[in-house]
């Protein structure tokens, strides 16, 4: 399957700082990427849909000013958690759609574990 | 109503035996896709199998098969000859329509394979 990378895999930061997470499609171009958040032992919660060259579409209840998404190219989307607080600690996963297939499957990155102290 | 329902929070299976993980879905869109993902403790979501709403046959991928019953709106995952490495969380997901629309995920099933 298609390969999606995320960086960093883990990050620990102090409360009040901003953290940027990168999501890259390594062997395909992705016009659409998705950002999810996952709490321990829970399912994935979609935060936003990121479209290359346009503004992201946020799910209800997700603060767009707190979770800034930029999809600057067909292979890179970034999620910036601004002024992070301990309640933002979570596992963040991105996914990207690989075109040219009949299934429109989303392939996921390995995830980023964020801990805010 | 929930788009995807997984009613088994946890399952145990003996190594080398088959196991079925349940998934039901709810949609009024005639075109949709159903997916199963495996999430080991490392956290990565691994794509396992896909079933399209218009597919006439059940999807199969190696030891994985999808028991698609359209009238009952169920898409159960069958794992044959379970291995210890199959122990993980399994998520069922649905995409409505075609293209890269958002996925709806179920709450997941934790599968434990016993030696």
Brief characterization of the structure:
The complex is a heterodimer of chains A (117) and B (115). Chain A has 117 residues and is an all-beta fold. Chain A has no helices and 11 strands.
Give a verbal description of the structure.
The complex is a heterodimer of chains A (117) and B (115). Chain A is mostly beta strands. Helix content of chain A is 0%, strand content 52%. Chain A is built from no helices and 11 strands. In chain A, the strands form 2 sheets. In chain A, strands 2, 4, 5, 6, 9, 10 and 11 form a 7-stranded mixed sheet that branches. In chain A, strands 1-3-8-7 form a 4-stranded antiparallel sheet, with no helix packed on it. The mean pLDDT of chain A is 91. Chain B is mainly β and 115 residues long. Helices cover 0% and strands 51% of the residues of chain B. Chain B contains no helices and 12 strands. In chain B, a hairpin with a 6-residue loop joins strand 10 and strand 11. Chain B is globular.
Question: What is the topological layout?
Answer:
The complex is a heterodimer of chains A (117) and B (115).
Chain A: E1 4-7, E2 10-13, E3 19-25, E4 32-38, E5 44-51, E6 57-58, E7 67-73, E8 76-81, E9 90-97, E10 106-108, E11 112-116
Chain B: E1 4-5, E2 10-14, E3 19-21, E4 24-25, E5 32-39, E6 46-52, E7 60-61, E8 64-69, E9 74-79, E10 88-96, E11 103-105, E12 109-114
Parallel strand pairs in B: 2-12
Antiparallel strand pairs in B: 1-4, 3-9, 5-6, 5-10, 7-8, 8-9, 10-11, 10-12
């Amino acid at each position: 399957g298609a390969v999606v990378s995320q960086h960093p895999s883990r990050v620990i930061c102090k409360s009040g700082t901003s953290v940027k997470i990168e999501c890259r499609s390594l062997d395909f171009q992705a016009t659409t990427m998705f950002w999810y958040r996952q709490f321990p032992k829970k399912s994935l919660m979609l935060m936003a849909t990121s479209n290359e060259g346009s503004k992201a579409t946020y799910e209800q209840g997700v603060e767009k000013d707190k979770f800034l998404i930029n999809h600057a190219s067909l292979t890179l989307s970034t999620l910036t958690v601004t002024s992070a607080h301990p309640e933002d600690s979570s596992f963040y996963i991105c996914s990207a759609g690989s075109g040219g297939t009949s299934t429109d499957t989303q392939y996921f990155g390995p995830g980023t574990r964020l801990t805010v102290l | 109503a929930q788009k995807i329902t997984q009613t088994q929070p946890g399952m145990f299976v003996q190594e080398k035996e088959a196991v079925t993980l349940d998934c039901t879905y709810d949609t009024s869109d005639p075109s949709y896709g159903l997916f199963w993902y495996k999430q080991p403790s490392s956290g990565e979501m691994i794509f396992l199998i896909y079933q399209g709403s218009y597919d006439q046959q059940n999807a199969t991928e190696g030891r994985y098969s999808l028991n698609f019953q359209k009238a009952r709106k169920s898409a159960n995952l069958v794992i044959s000859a379970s291995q210890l490495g199959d122990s993980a969380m399994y998520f069922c997901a649905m995409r409505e329509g075609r293209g890269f629309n958002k996925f709806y995920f179920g709450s997941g099933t934790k599968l434990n394979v016993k030696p």
